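the two lines:
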Amino acid sequence: MDFFISLFSDPVAFWNSHTLLIGQIGINAIIATSMFLVLYSGQLSLAAPGFMAIGAYVSVLMANYWHTSGVLNTITGAILAGVIGLLVGLPVLRLRGVFLAIATIGFIEAIRLGVILNVEITGKGLGLSNTASADPLGGINIILVSAVVIVFLVWRLTKGRLGNAWSAIRQDELAALSQGIHVARYKLIAFVISALMAGYAGALEAHLTFNVDPGDAQYGVTRAVQVLTFAVLGGSGFVLGPVVGALIVTLLPYVFNAAGPYINIVSGIFLIAVIIFRPQGIVGRGGLAIIRPRWWPRARASAPSTG
Amino acid sequence: MDQQIINAIFIGSIYALFAVGYTLVFGVLDILNLAHSAVFMLGAAITYTLVANYGQSFWVACIGGMLVSALMGLVIEHVCLRPLRRRQAPPIAALISTIGLALVIVAAVEQGHPGSLTAWLWKDGANSVAFPPNTVPNPTWHIGDLTLQAVKVAIIPICIVLMLLLGYVIRYTQIGRGLRAVAENARAARLMGLDVDRMISLTLVISSALGGLAGILFGVALGDISPYIGREQVEVRGLAIIVLGGMGSVTGAVLGGYLLAMIELLALISPLGSGGRNGIAFAALFLMLVLRPQGLFGTRLRERI
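prediction for all of em together
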């Protein structure tokens, strides 16, 4: 509770003491938007942590070895993630639903376990030292501005020609195809844009810490599941849904601070409750679902039947 | 080398047993039950607790572990799946609710220290523990340069018998016909007078009991029981296996389990060494999906989630 009281009573002090948290929320919002984009085009892709890893490692390695500027590093990381996204997307996008999800899990784990933990230059399991370019407090404005710009751009995209095509593909791929929509091309566009965004977020995130950690919670399945939770919890029908989801999931440990060591139990129950009462997500159409057990009496119509 | 092959076969049996439960739920419901790996862990944890903290004999503890796992199946159905099914929620919502349940189960075990709220469930926190020595009779034989431990060798026939039994039930009994009917088309099955909800509960009970047993066997044979064995050892491997075998195919999951163990063995003895083991398995999974998405033994591709 102190958390929220300080947010309203003394916003400046709150900002100063929680800068890292706010930065993390901004980054998670970008990743959530990247997840939104693939879901919006009807693809259950969990590849985001893989692209984040590429963005993070490329930008930090460039800073460490070539001493180039942070802007150039970040952009190169993002673009490289986009290129890999194109290469991965070409063969993978034939898959649908849960098959795509599992293939992308294969991709992120092959990147993390197969490449990052095995190659000398990435520092293997120890992670990569980032003292050259890390700027935990200075980067926050860039992060927040990029988050807002990216969310706005994606919102515009979903309103345009591309967005209509994605919507059509999500609702019925066959029907979209028969309307002359080039399904493969539009899916690939969504996948590559989302890879670019994830790579960008990964590069930014790497600049928040002094050590890039190749752990499961960072670039592995755990992270992928977390990103999926952002999107589904917030609601994947509208671009702000995943952002709200990212905000809530990132803040959960602070909201349930009182639970102490039992925080994960409480968060898990909260997650189940939200998804059961609002299966369409928090930002979505329709009201709260009322779960009525079978033995609970049904509400009766007051007027007697005349028939 | 021969020793490694035997080890691969026995770990493959555990993988197979775990993946059969995974694939059964997917086959009937078209839902990935991500709480399955937590049930795997819970089975092992309950069995250990009954032996070490409550002084029960190993066999009683085994039955206790499996019962709790089976009950967990009912919890998954009633808490995570049925409310969503009633609301006709998109199947992706079930992924999140089962993830939530997995989070709760793992956290409950993880926080079990003496004096904490879940101390009755587990007392060793995040530590990895093994059964006290001599809990399980474990004669060891040496044949040539092979070392055969009874607990490891016994796993293979246990798994094979259970999987044959499951195959028999699915193929030849009234219950199995019901399960297959629900898997084929739930609405048609309901119109034919089948109690679909009961069939789905039954599927989850069977699946979770098998998952819990796989966890118990894993804990006994490898002496490594911690709140994280589900997440770290079998969760993603289980996904890989059911893809290798073809989603929803029980035979495929069994063969996929052994196949994955063999692939990992090959990666282990290759120049890549143990570091490359996991990476190779996932690269194989990725290639498999791209080249043959219906799996090795799957016949048709169903696209729903």
